[in-house]
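Table S7 (text form). Paired inputs.
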Amino acid sequence: MKKITLYTDGACSGNPGVGGWGAVLMYNGYEKRISAAEECTTNNRMEVTAVIEGLKCLKEACIVDVYSDSAYTVNAFNRGWIFDWERSGWKKADNKQLLNEDLWRELFNLSKIHKLNFIKVKGHADNEYNNICDKLATDAIKNFKNSL
């Protein structure tokens, strides 16, 4: 299996508001940068969307090191929350419906294809690729707003 590095970030101008996400995929010295924006969304949706969109770029099953500054996204896997959610019919521990269920279902399905390793990075610090993803996300928001 190929080993891929995926950096991701999401941002929102207002929460909810116009949101953007950015991702950088790296493999064997090559780099691909992707980003987009949505009109009415939340920061958490953009964080999870960035991971999904990065994984959707892969044409075959891979081992993927996913770097994110989103505790929401990283902890869902590293603390096993996503497996509990799936077992409980996508409900939280308090039996309330899970927010962003559509995205969690999609990411869960992608996790069956790829071997994902989630690594938490500090946001808005000195991590070069996290900063690149942040800029991709915030630029996507600016471009979206300018197109209105």
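Next pair, protein 2 of 2.
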Amino acid sequence: MSKAKPIQYIDRASGKTCTESVMGNKALNFAYNTLLGRSLWGLLFNTGFLSRLMGWFYDSKLSHNSIKSLLAIPGLNAGEAEKDWHEYRSFNDFFTRKLKNGARPAAVGNDVLCSPADGRLLIYPDVEKDVKIPVKGAVRSLESLCAMELPAQKYSVAVIRLAPIDYHRYHYPCDCNDDGKMIKVKGKYHSVNPIAFAKAPDLFVENTKVVTPLCSPVFGKFFFLEVGAFGVGSIVNTAVAGKHEKLDEKGFFKFGGSTVILVMDAEKIKFDPDLIRNSANKVEMLVRCGEKIGIAK
């Protein structure tokens, strides 16, 4: 069995290059890097049966002891959680944990765009609606990703990939209005880990997702996407329609690797230089929810 290369990213806070500890690494390598595994894609990823079954287990009390396997992965800061891990009812109860007050402060400034989630971020600046996202290997366009016809203009796209150890609630990145017109797109359940991208580069388009049009007085109209993945019991949007302040909670993912994508008007946003520079080299940067990732033009 051929093995995928180690996944490396830069921790933005420390500037250090880190190697990601992948939960279920052997299973991912089997599914994506062996002939037998790829022959089972229809069963594994094309229906939600296994993901729903996993969701049932991780929602049940039977899964409580599985929390320890997550805590054992380097990089998870259990001390940020509202409660001690023993107090959570199930694995998913801990996985979708809220954090203590002040754990994720919002960067100050009406013209500042915050990261909507903890995760490993890549920026695709100044792209047309027919450009493929991700650029390497994909055949589906940005317009296909958004599941709607887009105006002919330049867009800047931020892709935040969440790993199982991350805080799995996501938030509004700026003051904005949500009219509640979410588009729910049923699809496949591929992993969003880079191991999967090497074999299924169109998974952002193909996977189950939710697309929410938002409107900001500073950043104009933009789109907020939540992309589901293998093992994700559900994408749960907790916010109601109306005006929201920066870092108000929008929702959360249950267990599984997941991704949040912002599709912004390129004329309205200037993403931070370090993010642009590393993204140009295909290097993800670990960001935390609430930290500045861009500023209004």
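Residues 49-59 form the longest helix (11 residues).
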